[in-house]
Amino acid sequence: MNAAVLIAVGAGVAVVLWVLAKLGRALASIVETLAALAFLGFAFWTVLRSVGWLARQIVTRWRTCLTLVALAAWWRWWGWLSLAVVVVTLALIAVVWHQLDVVGFDRWCGRWLRAWWLRWAVYGRKLPDWLHACGLTVRDEAIPVDVTVNLVSRRRKRQAITQARQTSGVAVPALVRVRSGASWDEVRVRLVPGQKPEDFDDAARALATARKVSRVQVREIAPDVVSLDFMRRDLLITPVKSESLPGLEPARVNLCAVYAGTTEYGTPWRLPLTGAGAHILVAGASGAGKNSVMWSPLVSAASAIRSGLVRVSGVDPKGMELAYGRGIFARYAVSGKDTLELLENLRDELEHRKRMFAGNTRDVPLSQEFPLELLEFDEIGALTRYTDRKTREAIVEHVAVLNTQGRALGVSVRGYVQEPTKDTVPVRELFTRRVCLRVTSKTHVGMVLGDGAYERGAWANRIPETMPGTGYVWGEGIREPLRVRAGWVSDDTVKALEHYVTNGGTHHLDHCEERRAA
Ligand SMILES: Nc1ncnc2c1ncn2[C@@H]1O[C@H](COP(=O)(O)OP(=O)(O)OP(=O)(O)O)[C@@H](O)[C@H]1O
Fold it and tell me: Where are the transmembrane segments (predicted)?
């Protein structure tokens, strides 16, 4: 009996072992097949991704790819020695060129090399992280987040996180183009759905901090492309020269765009003295350099003033600044009473021109008989706020009429004020173009340049006291706040200008030079 049971159990165990062996073999071949399939799939996927990456590089970085192909071809056909000799020779030429003519080198070669390098080393690598940190990415909540972080090393972990961001439903604006100028980098990015250019305006300061620069300008290039301009170097840090006085022969002056100074891009800053945008309000704290915004265009227009094509009137409540070049001003007033008289005089001229030209022309043609009447109103707040009520109201009314009707009739008003509140300058809105120099408070920026100016980069309250004449312009014809610095006009130049426009052209500077020489 026992033997029979033992035989039965033994047979059962044998069967079970046989079945297990069969199963094991079957499972092993299944696992083998799966592993082979997984390996093949992984290899195929890697090849596909590599081809995709290569195609992307060829399209987006075609210059680099072409250079690499050219270098490889050279190496292949002519050997590494000739390649090394050519590269070293080119590098030496670049160094010598840079030493001899830094401007020419930068224009023709340096800026391309710098843009290429910055794209690879800075913007291509870091911009996605900056944009993400500044809240300029869009998360699509509908796409499941699948984050895999590899903790083997910091570098690997960083790569894993970046990869996770791309695959986890966070859309990052794409880098479109990098250009580099002498002082600015222009980095264009394509917005992703859900973003608007204003989002970048709001993040401008954060972006500046991320790039470790003092200023970022956001410009709208297309509905879905913005340019982030990073200022690497401040071109306005040193005083800007005003134009020199012309010779005795009458020189042509474009009164619609006279030189006033330099923009932050290193281009000339031009202001209209007539036509659209000629009524200018310049606001700035004491010592901000308002007078250079006044004198610099006058120096540029000297020839037109001298020939009688421009007639300048001056209101000088302090009795100091304009008095220094008193002879330049055909009409001049210091007190409230004198100012009223001067403004009435200009109103009469305005009415006279209306009678003369109404129905014949839409714009008065400027001539010696009907010159451009240019009113320089220094410290406009002193007379529109701090005089007696009757005088104040009359002055405000006259300025408002000149501002609203003057453009077509050849009358332009340029006002200067320390405190740009509505109480001080009730006609503030009637000035078609405004310049905000250094002001003491952030709220003043909006008062001068309009709502949103500060947010869009007009940081006039942060202009240092060591940079008088520097400010921002925005409004009519200027899409983004533009930082400018007026040309510096010395006392000698004011005197020379006065002499030039009053005595038939004798150049006072000669006299100054003689004096200096003595
Ligand atoms: N564009 C400029 N570049 C360099 N220095 C300047 C410039 N403009 C003005 N300055 C210097 O800054 C100082 C103040 O200039 P300015 O008198 O024009 O200031 P302001 O705004 O008119 O002040 P206030 O309202 O008190 O008269 C002056 O000493 C002048 O030399």
Answer: 36-56, 77-97
